[in-house]
Input
Amino acid sequence: MVLSILAAPWRHRHSFALSTLVLAGSAGLLLPAGVAAQPAATRGAGARPAGAQSAPLPKGPRAMMLADWYRVVNVSSPAVSPDGKRVAMTVTRAVESENRRHSEVWVVNTAGGEPQRWTSPGAESSNPRWSPDGKYLFFNSQRPGGRGNTWAIRLDQPTGEAVQVPEYPTGSMPANGSFAVFTDAVAPAPTVPTPDPFGQMPAMARPPFEAITRPTVPARFDGRHVVDMVYKNNNSGFVPGRRTPRVWRPQQLFRQNVGDTARTQITNVAYSHRGVSVSPDGQWIAFVADAGLRPDSVVDLERDSLAKLPYDKVRDEAERNDADIYLVPVAGGTPRKLMEWMGAESNLTWSPDGKQLAFIGRPGRTKSARIYTVPVAGGTPMNVLGDWQFEPGSIEWLKSGMHFTADIGGRSAVLKADLTGKTAPKEVVGGRRQVRGVSFDAAGRTMAFVSTSLTRPTELFVANADGTGERQLTEFNKDVNADVVWSDAERFTYKSVGDVEIEAWLMKPYGYQPGRKYPLVLYIHGGPHSAYGEGWFDEFQNLAAQGMFVLFTNPRGSSGYGADFTYSTRGRWGMEDYEDLMKAVDIVAARPDVDATKLGASGGSYGGFMTTWMATKTTRFAAIQTDRTITDWTYWYGASDAQGLTEFEFFGKPWDNQKLYDELSPIRYVNKVKTPMLIVQSEEDHRTPMGSAEIWFMSLKKQGVPVELIRYPRSNHDLSRTGEPWLLVDRLGRLRDWFGYWLQGQKAGTAN
Output
């Protein structure tokens, strides 16, 4: 059977590009024939498959046990149907017996009721999206015998079976959904030369293509042949046997009508197009490009970071117009630059009447992003957020006004902008929680989103566009929520050095009793440009269940508080941010219910650097766990996949500013460390490579400091978030063991 429709994810005009959450409920859901409704028993934890799995867990209410991790369900990627009557979503569970995660597409009525599974439990399915006419539900799935990963269920046909649609394009559609505009790589325009792209990068000191060595006997060589730095982040490197230079293939615009497999190329120029957005009337295409950069029109971090140029403040700190917004008729023609604007633009969004464009613009790397509007006829962009402190995440311009998302410190919300720019935006959906994956129906009346709080894993919610009428649609985590008493946290703020206000949270231990003293573990987030906040987090709950206070903060350098706050630690990592963290420890340790002699600290990535740094600065902590650590910045520069981070944050490469690289390296002060340390490291982590952990381990062993190094195989930088379930849970258990022994005097191996 051939499905006559476009086949791959187009950009639905009424859907925020946000992260996803969980769902539950759907009364009177009309299923396509052949799609069996799943019984209510499929909600919540569900039945566990046979095989290697934990022993049956006791009923609650009780503290979290390690095996409870396998029961938590994640809901994400909500998509409201065009008529606003249904929400599709991705539901992900852990399959404990098979050491893997499994995702399926579920659908629920916005009126409420039981959610229903719409995809086969025997295949991985995710990322649902509706066709603009509501006749098709598209989703991604890797299925045997398929070509590509896009499938569709046709709702107006009796079978209800999924059919692959490999010709479906990614892109944007007009209001009527009659066609899609998308980008695809093609050879450069005939008038554009196609030299060896490496010849455009003499600073990379790449050997001439003809000089690259070849294996003497190809069948006997199975090593890694490296000539490009990108092998670090794409995990492939130079492909042995390549006989021709790689050629940049600029992304051009294409159009494809619904019901047709043929596509029409719209542009043929030397630069790439991205961020495509079609006007509501289907007449114009807006896109982002840098026509003067290079054929790929994308800043290549490896090229930039490996340039043989010393750091120069005037040159390297100058604001650059990295890209511009262009318009071109759908029928084709010469693209027209909409405006001259210094900075980077993204999230192009048309006004409902098609007369204006909105975009998120960042004037410079250390400048706060803002929402701007500009007439499509041309003119000066207007900032509709003014000097509002926080930064937008995505935009949706409805007939009722402009909605956008933003992180506001440790929480996130949906807000409505004042299009005049005269007043601050109004919060529509917010509160002490994190809101993700916001999606609207075609009329802009119904909004779906995923929400999580400190004491609740993700579930699906729906509300009116103005935020009224909010209600929860799913209860996938009902069973685990009934058994486990999730610990809550008290939010507080405090003034740190320089009179800067810092946001923090203190989570109480399970079974907290007034009059008792409890140990405390400080958690330090990664980034550093990220943040902790008002969402459920397994690591915090894990130690709170062990009977410990958990302190987490967003020190200087964190995101969610404006660009000035985010970049205030540039060139000063481990200085004011360290003071921010220790000030929080001082405040909490002074409480009568905290045992100030039993303090611990834990952190990963940037937090891993900070924990090793702390160990060289203070002996206040009885035990520290460091994860994905960085102990020598010069080593890290050569071994990591993200050299550009330190080049920017440390004002140049090591040879430009070796003093700073040395001064901020914990290994230079390792002889001061007295605190027992648990080191956790992934063997395939290219972001924070193993060498940092090894040198730290060896140095502490030589000094007689109690230290352990846990090496996890088949794991990368994201082990603690998306790694193999068995290894992830093993790590949580070791944290319980480590802090349980050093802070509570418990024998290792007693964690449950």
User: Anything to note?
Assistant: Residues 485-744 form a domain with the Rossmann fold fold (CATH 3.40.50.1820). The first helix runs from residue 231 to 234. Residues 1-50, 192-205, 234-245, 294-306 have pLDDT under 50 and may be disordered.
